[in-house]
Amino acid sequence: MSLGGIIPKSKIADAIHLAVATVNGIDYLVSWNVRHLTRPVKRKQIAEFNSKLGIYVPVISTPDDFLETL
Questions:
Q1: Radius of gyration for the alpha carbons in the chain, expressed in angstroms and rounded
Q2: 10, 49, 57, 60 — which has fewest CB within 10 A?
Q3: H helix runs in the chain, sequence order
């Protein structure tokens, strides 16, 4: 496991996308990965992990959720 045990090593692409969004202060990370990254439990775990470290927390959403916010 990586990212504090939240994202499995087998999901390295998810970890990279999240890292890029976090380091660059990107407001939204939009993903079709509804089986993993955009699940509500994962979103909460990631937000708590980043907050605990005092680093930026991007909003993680599906394309449908994102379009509803516009």
A1: 11
A2: 10
A3: 12-23, 40-53, 63-69
Whether the Cβ atoms of residue 37 and residue 30 lie closer than 8 Å to each other:
no
Please tell me the pTM assigned to this model: 0.85
Residue 61: HSE in the Cβ half-sphere, 13 Å Cα cutoff: 13
Local structure of 3: helix, strand or coil: coil
3-state secondary structure of 4: coil
**Distance of alpha carbon 68 from alpha carbon 64, whole angstroms:** 6
Residue ranges covered by each domain of the chain: 9-69
